Amino acid sequence: MENSESKNPIIVYEGKNGRPKIKVVMKENYFKKSRQSQKPIDANRYPDTNDIITNALISNSPYPGYWEQSENCAFSFFERILKQSNPGIFLDLGCGQGRLLLKFAKYYKQAVALDCDRSRIDKAKAMLKNHRIKNIKFINDSFLKTDMKRDMFDAVVCSHVIQHINTGECSAFISKICNILKPGGTATILTNHSTKKRDFFVKSALENNVISEKEISENQFNEFIADKSNGLPIHYFTIDSLRKYFIGLRVRDIRVFHCLHANTVADKIVFRDTIANIPLIKNYSGRDVIVIISKLLTPVL
Ligand SMILES: C[S@@+](CC[C@H](N)C(=O)[O-])C[C@H]1O[C@@H](n2cnc3c(N)ncnc32)[C@H](O)[C@@H]1O
């Protein structure tokens, strides 16, 4: 007998050898519905969907065009290195919506674009369809979980990714970048810069078009990374703490950029990032930092 009146699940009574047996049969959509209602958190979702927080930050640039000018200048040393090196294989690690693929893939025979968030990979693919770039292979996976051959890449760019990973994974993350880099290859890592004397952590959110950054503890940061609730957790690194990850590697350059203080008369005379990178000033300037490293041909023992 089927109780067709009842909601899911349906209970069917089966009598066999005179012994009643109860079988529970789920209606077609039951699992689908229950899965939706207890939808698991997507551990790979990047919280700033559509880069809304990032775009708000860019629109607060101290003068028009500064945000791009500052980043282009930060990348210029890396671009000089790659123009002089072999056009081999390039990795955009945490490619997001693919803007840096447009900038760098053309220098290489083959480019690999990796991101753990499927929706961002899809957006990168859609954006690149409008350009004639055909040498890109996409991988949708988390970097530490992806199988990659040692000494595989001539260059790696990892832009604005390590500030969003669990602090316990930073060391393994950077070691793996070095591992997959060919000897003599170059890696460029961009991240948030702490102008305090210590690393610090914030939860960044956009409320009424205003970005708020609330300082949180390292433990809270790691919890936010895991639970993917609203807001973007960010780790700000001091230059000294970054250097510790690169021991044994050739650090070619460390520059700060995106100096977001208000305009001054000095802006009419000199590019603000030039002043920001004067050695004694560097530790106290810039929202972002770029580190360019080369893998030694013979490793330090
Ligand atoms: C702030 S966006 C930067 C995107 C791009 N690199 C750029 O500079 O425009 C960070 C990206 O890193 C990705 N990401 C974060 N952790 C990752 C991981 N462990 N493995 C792969 N991608 C990761 C996110 O999904 C996101 O798309």
Structure, explained:
By secondary structure, this protein is α/β, with parallel strands linked by helices. 31% of the residues lie in helices and 28% in strands. It has helices spanning 30-37, 52-59, 66-84, 99-104, 118-129, 170-180, 218-227, 239-245, 266-269, 272-276, 279-282, and strands spanning 10-16, 19-25, 89-93, 110-115, 136-140, 153-159, 181-192, 200-207, 210-216, 232-236, 250-257, 288-294. Strands 5-4-3-6-7-12-11 form a seven-stranded mixed β-sheet, sandwiched between helices. It has a three-stranded antiparallel β-sheet with strand order 9-8-10. Strands 1-2 form a two-stranded antiparallel ribbon. Helix 6 (170-180) links the parallel strand 6 and strand 7. The chain is globular and about 45 Å long. The chain binds S-adenosylmethionine. S-adenosylmethionine is lined by residues 46, 94-96, 99-100, 114-117, 120, 142-143, 159-161, 164-165.
Topology overview:
Layout (H helix, E strand, L loop, with lengths): L9 E7 L2 E7 L4 H8 L14 H8 L6 H19 L4 E5 L5 H6 L5 E6 L2 H12 L6 E5 L12 E7 L10 H11 E12 L7 E8 L2 E7 L1 H10 L4 E5 L2 H7 L4 E8 L8 H4 L2 H5 L2 H4 L5 E7 L7
Parallel strand pairs: 3-4, 3-6, 4-5, 6-7
Antiparallel strand pairs: 1-2, 7-12, 8-9, 8-10, 11-12
Number of spatially distinct domains: 2
The molecules bound to the chains, other than polymers, are: S-adenosylmethionine
N-to-C CA distance: 76 Å
Q: Which strand-content bin applies to the residues?
A: 25-35%
Number of H- or I-type helical stretches: 11
Fourth CATH level, the homologous superfamily of the largest domain = Vaccinia Virus protein VP39
How many whole angstroms does the radius of gyration measure? 24 Å
What is the SS-derived class?
Answer: alpha/beta
Instruction: Pick out the low-confidence regions.
Output: 1-16, 18-39
Total count of strands: 12
Helix share bin: 25-40%
Give, in order, the helices and strands.
EEHHHEHEHEEHEEEHEHEHHHE
CATH architecture of the largest domain: 3-Layer(aba) Sandwich
Reported by name, the CATH topology of the largest domain is Rossmann fold
User: What is the CATH class name of the largest domain?
Assistant: Alpha Beta
Question: Major sheet: order of its strands?
Answer: 5-4-3-6-7-12-11
The average pLDDT value, as a whole number, equals: 85
| Major pleated sheet | 7 strands, mixed
Spatial shape: globular
